[in-house]
Amino acid sequence: MQPEEVHALPVTLAGQFRRHLPRYAVGLVLLASYQAAQYWFDTRLMQAINAATAGHREQALRLGALLGVVALLSLLVRVASRLVLFNAGRIGEYELRAVLLDRLQRLGPTFYQRVAVGDIMCRATNDLTHVRLLLGFGVLNAMNTIFGLISALAVTLSISSELTWAAMAPIPVLFYVTRRFSSQLYGRQKENQEAIGEMSDMVQASITGARVVRSFNLEGLQLSAFEKVNARYLEKNLFLARLRGSMGPIMQGITASGVLIVFWYGGSLLVQGRITEGGFLAFFRALGRLTWPLMALGFLVGLVQRGRAAYVRLREIYQAEPDIVDGPLPAPPEVKGHIEVRDLSFGYGERSVLRGVSFELLPGRSVAIVGRTGSGKSTLARLLPRLENTPRGMVFLDGYDICDLPLSVVRKAIGYAQQNPFLFSTTAARNIGLPLPECESPLALLTITEAARRAYILDELLGLPDGIDTVVGERGVQLSGGQKQRVALASAFVLGPRVLVLDDPLSAVDARTEHGILEAIDEQRAERGVVLITHRVAAARRCDRILVLDEGRVVESGTHDELSKSGGLYQGFVEEQRIESELSRLGEMDLPRLGAAS
Amino acid sequence: MAAKSQKTMEAYHQEALDSGLKDRTLLAQLWPFMKPHGVWLWLGIVSIALGAGLSLLRPLIMLHAIDGSLKTHDPDLIFWGGMQFAAVALCEQLLQFAQTYAVQVLGARSMADLRVSVFAFLCRLPLGFFDRQPVGRLVTRVTNDVDAIQELFNSGALNAIGDLLRLFGVVAIMLSLDASLSLVAFAAMPVIGLLMVWVRRRSRDAFRTIRGETARMNSNMNEQVNGVALIQAFGQERNKAIEFDGINSSYRDANIRSIKYDAIQDAAIDAVGSVSLASIIVALGYHGASFGTVVALTAYLSQFFEPISQLAQRYTLLQSALAGAERVFGLLQVPDRDAPERTGRAIADGSQEWALELEHVSFGYKPDYDVLHDVSLEALAGESIALVGPTGSGKTTITALLLRLYEARQGTVRVHGRDVTGLGRDELRRQFAVVPQDVYLFSGTLAQNVAAGEVPDLARVEQVLRQMDIYDLLGRRPGGLETVVRNGGSNFSSGERQLIAFARALYRDARILILDEATASIDSQTEGRMQRALEELLRGRTSIIVAHRLSTIRQASRIVVLQKGRVVERGTHDQLLRQNGLYSALHELQFSREGSVPLDETSQRVAAPPSPPAPA
Question: Whole-model pTM?
């Protein structure tokens, strides 16, 4: 399905039902015909038995052959009904999941700060499963139970109404019991999940803290702590075992009591000649058909409740309002990359991060933004391409307020490489080629390797087991922080924006790599505008202008030469980093080694 | 590139751990864990067998009651038949409970034991093992993978025995009741057999695809959510949505396939049952039989089809359990051990004179890259040695070798004259108290943290805090010593965390102290307290201090200067300053400055202490 179609899909439960109405209607007809065929089968079975026991062979043979045909036909109808209705659930699940991703991709930082990733994933898996069961399994069983009840009652009532009422006696009990078990089971399974979550956390903490555990020889204590958690999980497991163990026997016990009633009361009716042999057997069969749908009915109530509750949790995502959306203006024919920031103030709730920041970046020029951790420089970087909720009237691209432009224009024009980059679990090449529509053509490969070379990462990638096609990320080869930064840098190069915003690309690299990256940035400066967020003086000094941020305000601005003599914050940074590089030079220097103990 | 990267992607998604263990070996390895709970196993098996036997009785009871009463027209026969029926049904359900419960208890208890074994095994692995393995994967071994094995018990895989018994029992009884009618009923059997063969393979394939796609789908969505800012920044929403749709739709299609096969299987068994019933009845016209026999035969017929459909499901569960077992037992095969005690000639004990001694030690975290080269250093009992050097010079690594967290590649490490490889793990580490660079706080209370996991003696905790003169700072919090440490200590400042680590070391009261000083700056108020606390801690102990502050260095009796994994200078502070070498250069750059604040935490510089440099 194309992403455009996904966007238009209904997200309400009623909408999903309406969308698949023809499917549900066909399912309804199929189930009705199946149960009608069952009625036909049971009643003709009765006649066939009576004919056979009475010695009417030909009649029995004719009826038997018909029964066989009907059995095979109802096989087809039954398969078709399952396919039509269960697939409705699966297709609904597929569509709801596609819409979920569509919404998640549109949502901005406001949403992601509010809802944790684990929580989102829980809704995308568990909650969606409950909704799917409601849409497919739930609907099928609801319909089937109704038709099954009608069809079975039609058979049994035609045989004996007294016997029917007697046989139905255990049904309310069965319904009540399955209902109870269903909700108990669900509650207990949830507790079980929590217990294993607790165990998971404990093991995780123990492995993360392995160094301390080893140093203080706490292995014994850790083991006894684990045994405690494990015992709690065992206890939950055993409780669940008792519940599961008793569920089957109790439900089957109730069902057996129905069979017993029919056998007992029906048997005496048979002996008294008030019902025929065929009637007796057909009654048994009809009762047997009813057992499963009625048991399912108990579970169905819980299933509907859970499905609706799960849907309410999903709805929170479906109906979340994206905070960053396209502006009203059409895409301008050409973007030059002139950026102007006017009196930009921004904060998260109460906390103010930026206060009245203003600067201008002419096309093809560069500006460095330096400051301590927490000075607001990374937030500023994310505000430029509207990755944060940039306020109106404060950031302008070629004279247009970026909030008025289409998002795609802003983000194509202002490329952003983040400080702690995220890598997808795919090949290094595909991570770098992320901005490309495809990564397989020779041209794309060329672009990717060229960008990797420029970002000073190509040689290291080629050294991986499968070269640039090595899978990296969570499920692949782990890259170091500095390597990840350079992969992100390379993909920003691939994007080829008018303005490149680099968020501290040197924060995790060694001196030699730093030098290489600085040269790469120089190359970029020749081609496009650069906003360089950095804490390194060596990087900042190459830019045309330097802004010094402190507590969200621009406290100094000018060229490196001006600022390094100004006696302000920047001069302090210069001095500090001189010492730092001196220290690292000492660490690298070749010194004569001391001989034996003095 | 396309084909190759596709292949590597698939390999990663399958996350296969090729331990080379055979299915039978895996089951054999499960046995030791089940054996202590063998009673439940036997209880389970016996009740399964009895239950299968009893379930065969019910139709026979119906047969006799119906035929008897039809012949004699005596309603009492029906009544007694009903009573027998009820009694059998009751026993059957009791046995059913007994077997379900017994098997689940067996599973829960033996898997709990397995979990403890796996966790204990993790505790015996050397630290280096964890450097190479993602934590999440190891956690999964203890939790999800063991659960997959347990599912085998919960789902009643042992019932397969009962299914088989019932299957043979049903056939035997049917044949003995009325051979020709039964044969007619079985006429449709080959159809079922063929169908099962046809469906089962396809259904298993679909099931396997579903499992693979589920994993892919969840990890893809998880990544898209985690990397949403990146996707938005590069305007890749559409491409990523198409990528996800590929997985989402193949997940849907695999499910739809599986629905089809399941539906065909269920419906076919049902239909064949009906056809068999119809053929019995037709045959009845030509071949007289009592009505009771017909009732019994139809009842048996439905019992016959039930186990067939369940046997197929159980096989897929067995597969998934074996995959879990393979991962768990694959981990247990790892041969590395943390600090194994050695005996024999390899042990090189030395002079008791030195409390600590490294003799020509070389070491690397990776096989072909050493970070320590031929390092020798030693400390007398009660002496305090400061390790000083630029970042990456190997200071922290030396402390790890003393504790034998890692094994020296060459040379000997001795503690009180004993070669560490000849000491038991606990015997060695009990002699140390460690203050690591990144203080790790356990979940629990403040007092529990000071007692390092032991049951805290509150009076002693208080005494320790008072001795260090920090009781007023830590003990006076609203919760006092019972203040709960929240997620890794976020409710304590970095300075407070350091002081807790100091208190922990003092509480432990070991003979040797290893202190890896934090590089991060600490507010000046805590800084002063820290110095006093440190004095308490050092008193009467041998200590190795990875020092970053001049105040700390000045408490040491000797200084060892390291650079690039080698010892380059050693001596007292004053001697080293006079040498005008690396130490004096470091001192000038690092220790003698005042007041300036680090520009960024990513820079490795160290906050300057408030005290002025000592006169040379």
Answer: 0.79
